[in-house]
Design brief:
Length: 105
């Protein structure tokens, strides 16, 4: 399962990671978010040890969603060395997410 990240753990898990981190900003009530979730679960299994796939529930954890300008969900950001290097807003095919993470491995 993708790593659950909170405002309290975001810096440690995402910003200080030595691997690329794909973060899904989502909410339980969001239909499109439920479409993205199984894709990211698959990526989590496929990229284990190479990249981190993480999720942030924006209802419970608003600090970093606000800091990175997440206005629509799902928004998926890829971080490398603590910086945003890729962004995908809305649902996309699995290949799009793979392309975004592969570019930073």
């Amino acid at each position: 399962m993708a790593v659950e990240v909170t405002d309290a753990t975001f810096e440690e898990i995402v910003l200080k990671s030595d691997k690329p981190v794909m973060v899904d900003f989502w909410a339980a009530w969001c239909g499109p978010c439920r479409m993205v979730a199984p894709i990211l679960e698959e990526l989590h299994n496929n990229y284990e040890g190479k990249a981190v796939i993480a999720k942030v529930d924006v209802d419970a954890n608003q600090k970093y969603a606000a800091q990175y300008g997440v206005r629509n969900i799902p928004t998926v950001l890829v971080f490398k060395n603590g910086e945003v290097v890729e962004k995908q807003v809305g649902v996309a095919p699995k290949a799009t997410y793979e392309q975004k993470i592969n570019a930073h491995l």
